[in-house]
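I have been asked to look over a protein record a colleague put together. Alongside the sequence sits a line of tokens, each denoting a local backbone shape. Please read both lines and tell me whether the tokens look consistent with the sequence. I do not need a full report, just your reasoning and any doubts. I have pasted the whole thing underneath without changing anything.
>
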Amino acid sequence: MKAKIAILFLATWQTLNAAPTVPLAQPDISFRHEIQHAIDQGLNWLKDHQNTNGSWSSTDHPAVTALALSAFMGDPVSQPPAETIKRGYQLILSDVKPDGSIYNKGLQNYNTSICLMALLAAHNPDYDTSARQARHWLLTQQVDGGVGYGDHGPHSDMNNTFTALQALYYSKQLDQDKSDKAKDLDWPAAIKFIQSCQNPNGGFIYAPTESKAGSETNAAGKVALRSYGSITEAGLLSYIYADLKHNDPRVTAAFEWLRQNYTLAENPAMGQQGYYYYLHLMAKALNTYGVDQLELKNGAKINWRQDLAMKLINLQKADGSWANDTGRWWEKDPALVTAYSVMSLEIVYRGL
């Protein structure tokens, strides 16, 4: 039975970074080598900049450490450095609370969700108990269908809902073959909340009454909250994690908005704010949706993986790191942004 669970565990995690069902005809070996070189440089930078206590950046938010660990565990070629990984996971486990949540200073849902993903990435049965407890805690955090910053904060938002649904989706196997299964999420309520954040144009906003991109006047002269790139990717992924199918009109509308607004120059409607998070969610969203060639609004068909990889390779600094000159959402932090970028390249690598 343990062997069966282990196989399910591995298969579920690999799905996160897996290539679509229909891969490209011929793997581009040469380009893969270029991508792997960028991955290696990024991971070497992370290895050299881990704090002695096992964290990256600050111990205030273990999610940053969890993202760096997930980047190491997703390396498609090399084994991660054992001591680096050991110290990082010890840091995360030191923040596990008696109720199962994983955080230090606030942002309970966000930190717990991202740390749960890192625990899953380890494929280490020693972490199963902590991962299962984190999953069960997340299942208690639903507010009006969605999830907020926690613990049962005053309102939900689309980004925290996405991170929670992602962690719950990929941790489902932890409750298989268990007689004491935790109460599942109210998925219809979750879908209703996701839908409440989707504009008629298919794009998404941060919360039903808030957009980080502000408002705009539409063609009818009505002021409406503006959809933006990264949160629309989060919305599309959330629908998929909620088991909506490709032909569901809400899913197709979200994908159509992303197709119509595709760009690597900025986070659509946000400029450089949250730019690397946008690129990271782009890799996840388009890969999970299962699209290889993306047809743009002008009819041009592009290989989005190659374009995204080249953009990240060109943005990588000489020391192997990445960082945003615009600091919104912590993106001046090279540890955070380097983890985003490495994970994006790892997704691309597997799809080429």
DSSP finds 13 helices and six strands in the chain. The two ends are 35 Å apart (CA to CA).
